Amino acid sequence: MALPPVLRRPHRKWLLWGIAGLAIAVVPVSLPAARPAERHVRLEASSFAFAPAVIAVNRGDRVTLELVATDVVHGLYLDGYDLSVTADPGQPATLSFVADRPGTFRFRCSVTCGPLHPFMIGKLRVGSNGLLWRAVALSVLAAVAGAWSVRR
Amino acid sequence: MTRLDLTRVPYVKALLVSRWPQLLVRAAALGGFIFAILAGLFGTPVGSRNFSIIVVWIAWWALLMLVAVPLLGRGWCSICPIPMPGEWLQQGAVLGPRSPSPGRGQRRRWPRALRNIWVQNGCFVLLALFSAVVLTQPLVTALVLAAFLLVAIGTGLAFERRAFCRHLCPVGGFIGLYSQLSPIELRVRDTSVCAGHTEKSCYTGSADGYGCPWNVFPATMTTNAYCGLCMECLRTCPLDNVIISVRPFGADLPGRRGTRMDEAYKALIMLGSAIVYAAVFLGPWGWLKATAYSVGSAAWWGYAVVFLTAVLGALPGLFYLAVRGGKQLSGSTLATGRAFARYASALVPLGLAAWIAFSLSFVFASASYLWPVLSDPMGWGWDVLGTAGTDWSPYFSGLVPGLQVVVLLGGLWWASAMTRRIAADGHARDQAARQALPVIIFHLLVTVGLLWLLVG
Questions:
Q1: In this predicted structure, what is the pLDDT of residue B288?
Q2: Per-window interface: B 3-32 vs A, CB < 8 A
Q3: Do you find a cis peptide bond into B33, omega within 30 degrees of 0?
Q4: Collapsing DSSP states into helix, strand and coil, what is residue A105?
Q5: Are B338 and B260 in contact (CB under 8 A)?
Q6: Distance, in angstroms, between B281 CA and closest chain A CA?
Q7: pLDDT tens per residue, range B283-315
Q8: How, if at all, do strands A62-69 and A38-46 pair?
Q9: Peptide bond into A52 cis (omega under 30)
């Protein structure tokens, strides 16, 4: 289907790409939300992994993380929520918060525990990872736009 | 294409031509480099409290991948301290050439069969394979840095020019690859001036400076990949015909027909390594980190096989299939090998985006280790600057995922555009679109994989 004359100029086509990208990036998508619940997760920290490594909760859940250090002192810092807690071996510590921000957030050890300490990472999934899905959709758009930009 | 000649600004040219500013910066870098070796050898084994780990793998790496390479190309190479001692011994001089040269260098020519970057590719793969230990153990970092220095000295004494930098340095290999994207270039102003100049002092040297240490002839240079921005040609050209310019990003790559197979493999090795690094270091799989770290164990050997297969076999194999698929879809008669090398140029922006996205994550998470380490570089309880007690705190943890997405999308867009441009060369529009499609799908799948690893 041919574009209307007003949209045939190249810069106007870039405007369409931009609008499409913006729509993918910011238009809210409402998904059915589960009823908030209380979640208690026992998180075992050992050099250099958390178990479970991935925690999935629903948006709005009240989450209590019980950090159990199994070998040396370990800490936990939660990206995006800016929360932290430290546990000594034999002395679990708890961190409670409401998972009100959706997405996937890394948590990482916050107390030097050995050589691989900077890479001791786990993931907290709160509801759907909107950033990832939007990024995938934008990737398709970027690939098509890139190819279209030099078509001849 | 528009260029802005920086050497037309008198004080800029004076700064670049004078040896003193560059020497002072390089000398400071050499001091830091040697201190990093000493800190690794004699300082605390706790990586997060040791100068060698934090300054080299956090601070220097951040500056390199996030600033120097994207914006200045081979800018780091212009101040790199590693070849300095070898050059001093080779030339017998610290400032400028002396005649006759009292240097001890044998000045042999680098073996013809090795005048490529295959050895650099191998060196990088080796470094990447052992990276879990190199990046976390101060002693191992020190030994690696010391090895770089000793090999550079050895090759400086045995061979002419900067053989280490040009053919061996694993860091220089990828800096050269990605420097093709940078907005800085060194070129000649007018090639006809060079044609009429018989002495070719930019390559042979003169009383004002050395012949190109990188074994490049500036008059025929069409890419940043092998120019180390050492400024010798700026000093030796008597005709004011060598210039440093600001140019559009990626100006080296569009339609570049001369990509070699070793360069294509470098692009694939870097991309594959970024993917593996994202999985090993930034993933939640503790068993994978432990396996990568346990060098010499049976599990590690399994990891080594998987790593080498993925980086040297699987990813290049998938790329080959994509290129071949495009050939079959379009009916192109271009030899698959040549097409493979040409389309590999598009992996340059994709790979750089992958490395920037990877680096953003661990650099900002670990940058705060720098403050205590600057006060207590050896981990001996010093507090020189009063910051030894600074607690760890990640920076921009909420912003980093969004930044990573933006960077990866930019790399994908650029790679797709480049792929389409390469396909259009010598083909009709529809044929070019069919030829490019599988390769663009390859770029898309790699990007989605990286997105899943980094923000998923």
A1: 96
A2: none
A3: no
A4: strand
A5: no
A6: 5
A7: 999 999 999 999 999 999 999 999 999 999 999
A8: parallel
A9: yes
Residue corresponding to tokens 């709160």: A126
State how far the alpha carbon of B445 is from the alpha carbons of A108, B212, B275, in Å. Answer: 28, 41, 12
Low-confidence ranges of chain B (pLDDT < 50): none
* Chain A residues bordering chain B (beta-carbon distance below 8 Å): 46, 48-51, 53-54, 77, 79-80, 82, 103-104, 106, 108, 110, 112, 115-123, 129, 131-132, 135-136, 138-140, 142-152
pLDDT at A152: 54
Give me the residues paired with residue B210 across strands: B205
pLDDT digits (tens, 9 = 90+) for A12-24: 777 888 888 988 9
Residue B100, both tokens: 């006759």
Closest partner residue to A142 (CB to CB) among B282, B412, B419 is B412
DSSP string of B59-81, one letter each residue: IIHHHIIIIIIIIITTHHHHH-S
Distances from the Cα of A82 to the Cα of A66, A97, A122, B257, angstroms? 17, 11, 15, 50
Sequence-distant contacts of B327-330: CB under 8 A, at least 24 apart = B327/B435, B329/B434, B329/B435, B329/B437, B329/B438, B330/B423, B330/B427, B330/B431, B330/B432, B330/B434, B330/B435
Collapsing DSSP states into helix, strand and coil, what is residue A113? coil
CB-hemisphere CA count at 13 Å for B218? Answer: 35
Q: What is the ipTM of this complex?
A: 0.91
pLDDT for position B93: 84
Q: Supply the DSSP string of B167-231, one letter for each residue.
A: II-HHHHHHHHHHTTSSEEEEES-HHHHHT-SS-HHHHEETTEES-TT---GGG---STT-----
Bridge-based pairing state of the strands A49-51 and B205-206 = unpaired
